[in-house]
Amino acid sequence: MQPAPQDGVKIRVRGLTIGYGGVPILRDLDFDVHSRGIFVILGGSGCGKSTLLRHLTGLQTPIAGSIEIAGVTRFPPPVDEPPPFGVSFQTGALFGSRTLLENVALPLQKWTGLPAPDIDNVAFARLRLVGLGGFENHLPAEISGGMRKRASIARALALEPDLLFLDEPSAGLDPITSVELDDLLTTLNRSLGVTIVLVTHELESIFRIGTDCIMLDRDALGIIARGDPRELRTDSSDPRVHRFFNRLPAGA
Amino acid sequence: MRAAVTALHLETRDVADGGVEFLLRGELTLATAQTAWPKVVQRATDLPEGALRRIDLTSVERLDGAGAAALLALRARTSTPARPVELAGARPEALQMLQLYGCPSQHQCLKGEPQQMPILEQVGREVLGLRAGFVEIVDALGQLCVAIARAVRRPGSVAWRDVPQLMERAGADAVPIILLINFLVGFIIALQSADQLRQFGASIFLADLMGISLTRELAGLMTAIIVAGRSGAAYAAELGTMRVNEEIDALRSLGLDPLRQLVLPRVVALTAVVPLLTFLAMVIGALGGMLVAVTSLDLTPTMFATRLQAAIRPLDVVEGLTKSGVFAAAITFISCHRGLTTRGGAAGVGRSTTGAVVTILFHLIALDAVMSTLFNLLR
Ligand SMILES: Nc1ncnc2c1ncn2[C@@H]1O[C@H](COP(=O)(O)OP(=O)(O)OP(=O)(O)O)[C@@H](O)[C@H]1O
Ligand SMILES: [Mg+2]
């Protein structure tokens, strides 16, 4: 993988306006994701977190603005090279006609010269890492929703990326599995230096593992708070931020 | 269980300036609202605009969520900006309900009307849509060309592994139905023509007729129609489902090009297989004709076959097979394009599949007309 640029900025977003059919849902975003950090994107349902992630991963073209990953601009997206990141989608998005092992093995087959048995070993190891050892020959339809989530994280890890995008990885997981997932992410982050960009609503995990965050707002069409989530919780004077971190409904 | 339900009663009272006040009595709940509430609404809408001033809730013994929602919607509908309708005298529990279901501003208590477009705007949008659709098709064709160019440069980036299985599904599995249909088509055409030919004493020309119509036109077209129904629909549904489930996005996020992973293998498989099926169709169609020749025209199989051989020129077969190759490419392109542009859940997949088959049928006929003209110029 490419080394991060000197200033330690992994993703640089400038003047980014995104939306559907030319209608913006988020306007003029500026933020940096620092290398080796765990960057959390927060905000109410429907404010555009998944949409932002689709732009960061190059699946959608912005209305305006620029996105650089490791100093390289992402638009137009480069072709025929392995992506410098892994993505886990909100819905899992596993290939329905392939087993879990084949799902994880696919990027390895495409982008590495490993012989088939080694690919299977690596893929199987990834599945074990997310607690899915023993399910490698199941089809996505034959496992539970939370397991699909974990399988998609295993696939995102397949190519050993140093940048991971995860859309609500712990949604649908029980508290214990979700803590284990947090531990997994922390381990990847600390020992392998993986930068993680994460959409989540789990307050505990935001405070436990998040090092930096932005909070998006639907009505403001942009970022209403940024910084270390633990500091935001105590220091922010913005009532919307206060409500979010203290689980208070509007008007309270 | 609760005591018997008290029905809802409405009393009206005239107040100053021609205003009216509603006095509700009893229970306003999901149970009572069903019978009594429409009458209240009717009374309110019968009043002149702005006449309703107040709804007195002092005697409302019970108000549930449904009742509160109905009440708030009625207030929103009858209030005018100058004279909001007042909800007065609610008991504490009722007040809680009203607050729970309350809306920040009056009109937000009313559901949005589905947008009705004026006819002229609809027509305009459709026309613009046609142009956009055309641009989209050209764009998709361009992308396919780019994908082919990239595939030539990096053959390893195409999912060749899927091709054999695709060929089996579109080709081998289709053989029985292709044989059956084309045999019957040959049989029917021969049967309908036999009578006419016999009257002119031209029975032997049945072979010419069958030979030319089957090779140049019918075998290719019938085969393409069957393949459109089988494989075209399948491709649109398959890729549409993948699209809806974000699997296409997942492919792209892994750095894989859906065109080379999914579309090109299908194009290759179908263009390889459909001409073969068409050839089979030509042969079996001729057999169908021969059956008629032997049974109702008193020709021998040898006579029919010899005549057939003389009637068919290589160019006819080339024409049929070329057309079928083009048909195959069109079927795959249209169905995959429809699949990849699916939006909107399960219903979207249905629309894509139907749309793909209809579009394919139209284009098959159109392409056939163009190519027949071209081949006529060649002769
Ligand atoms: N395909 C689409 N076409 C048009 N609008 C869309 C489309 N997908 C999403 N939107 C709109 O974009 C907005 C943001 O959607 P998005 O999926 O990014 O929300 P989100 O923040 O991820 O929400 P959640 O937390 O519920 O996942 C929504 O208001 C939605 O209506
Ligand atoms: Mg989302």
What is the helix fraction of residues of chain A, given as a range? 25-40%
Residue share in β-strands of chain B: 5-15%
| Widest β-sheet, arrangement of strands of chain A | 6-7-8-3-9-10
Assembly type of the chains comes to heterodimer
Largest sheet of chain B: 4 strands, mixed
- Arrangement of strands in the largest sheet of chain B: 1-2-3-4
pLDDT average of chain A, as an integer? 87
In terms of topology, how is this protein built?
The complex is a heterodimer of chains A (252) and B (379).
Chain A: E1 9-20, E2 23-34, E3 38-43, H1 49-56, E4 64-69, E5 72-73, E6 86-88, H2 100-111, H3 116-129, H4 145-157, E7 163-167, H5 175-192, E8 195-199, H6 203-209, E9 212-217, E10 222-227, H7 229-235, H8 239-245
Parallel strand pairs in A: 3-8, 3-9, 6-7, 7-8
Antiparallel strand pairs in A: 1-2, 1-4, 4-5, 9-10
Helix pairs in contact in A: 2-3, 2-4, 3-4
Chain B: E1 9-15, E2 19-28, H1 30-46, E3 52-63, H2 65-78, E4 86-88, H3 92-101, H4 119-153, H5 163-170, H6 175-199, H7 206-244, H8 247-253, H9 258-296, H10 301-311, H11 314-340, H12 345-378
Parallel strand pairs in B: 2-3, 3-4
Antiparallel strand pairs in B: 1-2
Residues 20, 25, 43, 45-51, 90 of chain A line the site of adenosine-5'-triphosphate.
Could you please describe the fold and organization of this structure?
The complex is a heterodimer of chains A (252) and B (379). By secondary structure, chain A is an alpha/beta fold. Helix content of chain A is 34%, strand content 25%. Chain A has a domain at 1-79 and 200-252: 3-Layer(aba) Sandwich (Rossmann fold), CATH 3.40.50.300. Chain A contains eight helices and ten strands. In chain A, the strands form two sheets. Chain A has a six-stranded mixed β-sheet, with helices on both faces. Chain A has a four-stranded antiparallel β-sheet with strand order 2-1-4-5, with helices on one face. In chain A, α2 (100-111) packs across α3. The model of chain A is unreliable at 1-6 (pLDDT under 50). With 379 residues, chain B is an alpha/beta fold. Chain B is 70% helix and 8% strand. Chain B contains twelve helices and four strands; from the N terminus they run ββαβαβαααααααααα. Chain B has helices spanning 30-46, 65-78, 92-101, 119-153, 163-170, 175-199, 206-244, 247-253, 258-296, 301-311, 314-340, 345-378; strands at 9-15, 19-28, 52-63, 86-88. In chain B, strands 1-2-3-4 form a four-stranded mixed β-sheet. The radius of gyration of chain B is 35 Å and the shape is elongated. The A-B interface holds A 54, 57-59, 79-83, 87, 89, 91, 93-96, 106-107, 110-111, 152, 155 and B 150, 154, 157, 241-242, 245-247, 249-257. Adenosine-5'-triphosphate is lined by residues 20, 25, 43, 45-51, 90 of chain A.
